[in-house]
Amino acid sequence: MKGKLMTGNVAAASGAMLARVDYIPAYPITPQTEIIETIADWVREGKMDSRFTQLESEHSMLTAAGAASLAGARVFTATSSQGMLYTIEMLYNVAGWRAPMLLVNVSRGVAAPIVLEPDHNDVLAARDSGFLQFHSETCQEVTDLVLMAYRVAEDKRVMLPAIVNLDGFYLSFTREPVILPEQKLVDRFLPPYEPVGPLRASTPVSRGSSVFEGFLYSYFRYNEHAAALKAKEVFNEAAQEFEGLFGRSYGPVEGYMLDDADYVLVMSNSFTALGRQAVRRMRERGVKAGLLKILMVRPFPAEEIAALLRGRKVVGVFDQNLAPGSGGIFYPEIAAALYHVRGRPGAILPIVGALGGKQITSAEMASVFEEMMAIDREGKIPKPMFLMRKDELGRVKKMVSIAEGKA
Amino acid sequence: MMSTTTRFKTLKDMPTRDYLSPGNTLCAGCGGILAVRIFHKVLGPNVAWVNAAGCMTVTMSYPLSPLKSNWLYTAFASAPAGAQGVRDALDVLIAKGKLSATEDLKVVVVTGDGAAYDIGLQATAGALDRHLDFYYLCYDNEAYGNTGFQVSSSTPFGSATKTTPATVAYPLGNTARKKDLFEVWRSMRAPYVATLSNSHGVDFLRKVEKGMRVKGPKMYIALAACPTGWGFDSRESVEVEKLAVATGSWPLREAVDGVVRHTVIPRTLTPVREYLKTQERFRHLFEPAEKVDAIAVIQQSINAYWKEAGAREGFEVKVPTGTA
Q1: With 70 as the cut, is the pLDDT of residue B289 above it?
Q2: Domain A253-393 has CATH 3.40.50.920
Q3: Could you read off the pLDDT of A299-354 as tens digits, one per residue?
Q4: Which of B226, B259, B246 lies closest to B302, judged by CA?
Q5: Dist. CA A316–CA B47, nearest whole Å
Q6: Which residue is closest to A54 within chain B, CA to CA?
Q7: Residue B2 pLDDT more than 70?
């Protein structure tokens, strides 16, 4: 079966259409806008039996989304970058409401300074919100993960909202072949949403009630955590059924050339493709290189990561994000996952790169693997790598001197 | 043209059925919860209240609720967007045949003035632009009451609050003028806007009834006398509101498709001084010596308001002299 060429944005919209969503509250932001434009068009053309409402901010958009989910609608929405940051208060609320809506985030670096191309500080700002997070490498994954995300989020054992992430530009505006699942099969995979205790005339409910006792608050918070952890098992069950119906298989993590790998790079999202290419090149040079892709970011698949990274000589964690004053965001999570593992890797190298969509050359990727090998060979303590090439630094210097009026 | 028939002729027509059980955690004499109670009586049982942070939030405390209807707390800034989500969801589910129309709800945003006048104004503007079919009930106690009485853009000139205390250097407390939210909402083309006072029950009931015949945003601002914030005995709540109306400082008015009409005209205004001196928040205007000039400023602005309103609508109000 051959796929149809489409952008990551259209792949996301297609997922929403296949999921037969009831309601799309929306707000434009680059590079996400194509998603809501596509859906608005489909709704107005009568191709989608849904209600589309454009709100006046992302904060309101998320409020409307969560509220509609509590009223019993299957809800889809999308944002990016500053929009994601603007929703943050509501992300925590909607997760606390246990409203299983879906938010697609099209990653874009956050201001200041303003930038359009991707890194993951936007979506990782939602890391602790209670939203499940699934990150995609390809346009096909975007469509598939939208369907998977609804299936997991709406499961009665979970009942949490979810984010599907795709990189701005690299996926959002890049056409790739996508096999759209057959509607009949999707309907079998994803039955209609059944809300728990929706707002109704016959059976009124109170939602979002206040809680003034720490023990009661702790109870609800632990409950949210337990549901998020449960989502992994539910995801795996759903993935099995998904594979049976559609022939594509997904796991919380994905290994690439891992069998005998000594040097393993951990990556996520679309830049993983560059990592795969680098692994192949290192293999050609006789280096036992491998890659681990993280697809499920929340719940964090610590056991799967530990199982696949134990016994490796050196692991490199490629963070396409920056926590100023700390480093990369994934690094400490992966280090924590490995700490108690017998035969844990000898060293973990932190790498920060591709911020704001900075391009990464194959030489840069090779330098990462060479550093991992040097750490192993010389037994040294890894020092964080912040990727920036000499030619780029030269261009920076030139622009700085223009800005300072010296050129 | 809106129907003018009403089932509310006298206070005896106040519906006896309550949808708010007696006993809740709000302060004794709270004008806000009284307004919610009366509002609910007119709307009937099938309501979804959508709330922003404030005093009402605190009374819906798990596992209890005094309400016999639906409740959703959203966030400080975005209750109208929550109403949008609930309204859209019910509409689309009913349209798709996934939900019986008998399950439909009246969607009512309920917030204090902090949310309505300040942090949530943008979300309200959005709901008005989209002509959302909902009710907005703002219980206006003219400050951030739930956090202990800090100034909001609804706080009147001359009121002391915790963040605008009256001191030697700042003898008047708050010197900003109260925002006219009625006019703000009207300018955003709300088809129905009204002010309410718990002291004028029939006027209150009729306005809610009138709004129920309107499709689109139905916007209400209810004066909510606040014993703890304003500083008066809790049993005086309704009397204080009555004085607010009698002095003309709380005009009872409505706007139908933008056309303003005053529904209660105080033919002879009681001097505002009488209202001010009932409350601790204005105490500095009388002590250590009466600040005659400041009180005159307040009186003059009330006089000017009623002169202008009277000229526009063709009535006359006898006003006290500016020097009280």
Answers
A1: yes
A2: yes
A3: 999 999 999 999 999 999 999 999 999 999 999 999 999 999 999 999 999 999 99
A4: B246
A5: 56
A6: B130
A7: no
Question: Rounded to the nearest 5 degrees, what angle is found at the Cα of A103, between the Cα atoms of A219 and A334?
Answer: 65
Q: Locate CATH 3.40.50.970 in chain A.
A: 4-246
Structural domains of chain B ordered from first start: 11-266 (3.40.50.970)
Residues 40-59 of B with CB under 8 A from A: 45-46, 48, 50-51, 57-58
SS3 of B145-161: the string is CCCCCECCCCCCCCCCC
Distance from CA of A27 to the nearest CA of B (A): 12
Residues of chain A with CATH 3.40.50.920: 253-393
| Summary mean pLDDT of chain A | 97
Q: What is the mean pLDDT of residues B162-188?
A: 98
Report the chain B residue with the minimal C-alpha distance to residue A61.
B81
Considering only CB atoms, B74 lies closest to which of A56, A63, A71, namely A63
Rounded Cα gap, residues A159 and A163, in angstroms:
13
Q: Which of residues 13-42 of A touch B (CB under 8 A)?
A: 22-23, 25
CATH superfamily of A4-246: Thiamin diphosphate (ThDP)-binding fold, Pyr/PP domains (3.40.50.970)
Cβ neighbours of B67 in A, within 8 Å = 204, 206
Q: Which of B63, B69, B72 sits opposite A70 (nearest CB)?
A: B72
Question: Strand, coil or helix: what is B222?
Answer: strand
> Which of A49, A61, A202 is the closest to B96 by Cβ?
A49
| pLDDT of A2 | 82
Nearest-CA distance from A216 to chain B in Å?
A: 9
Alpha helical stretches, state H, chain B = 31-43, 55-59, 79-95, 113, 121-129, 181-187, 201-211, 237-246, 272-276, 292-313
Give per-residue pLDDT as tens, A230-270.
Answer: 999 999 999 999 999 999 999 999 999 999 999 999 999 99
CB of B213 within 8 Å of any CB in chain A?
no
Which residue in the set A68, A199, A210 is minimally distant from B88, CB to CB? A68
What would the two tokens of residue A237 be? 């069950």
